[in-house]
Amino acid sequence: VLARVNRHYKTGAKLPEQTIQKLCATKKIFAATELQAQLFYSAADQLYHSNLPLPGDITSSLEEVQTKFHTLPYVPGTAYHLRFSHLVGYGARYYSYLMARSVASAIWQYSFQENPYCGEAGGRYRRECLEHGGGKASHL
User: Fold this and answer.
1) Is this model's pTM higher than 0.70 or not?
2) Can you tell me the distance from the alpha carbon of 64 to that of 74, in angstroms, rounded to the nearest whole number?
């Protein structure tokens, strides 16, 4: 997609293909770490909204979850959960972010990977996903 739409705003020159490939490769560098972080956030959200009381204080509980779900070590004396505002808004549903990413990836692979500009696939996406505005009942 980027190769088709990129142009310098003054000269109209396109980026070299090698530059585009390098840019695309940088998107994958920390993909595994970012996925681990999302799993950790989801597990922390489930912990804080599940069986209470917690086995310890909230900070030591967070350290335990991070040790279990992330390869980056917990830094003693920190309280990350105090800055993670999604804990309030999602209320034990933060995992749905990962589900949404999974569904978006499946839609891309099935409908748009071969031809991102396919009008037929775009129309199907509009009819089957966007038209309902979040009001379509799940098939599950």
Assistant:
1) no
2) 9
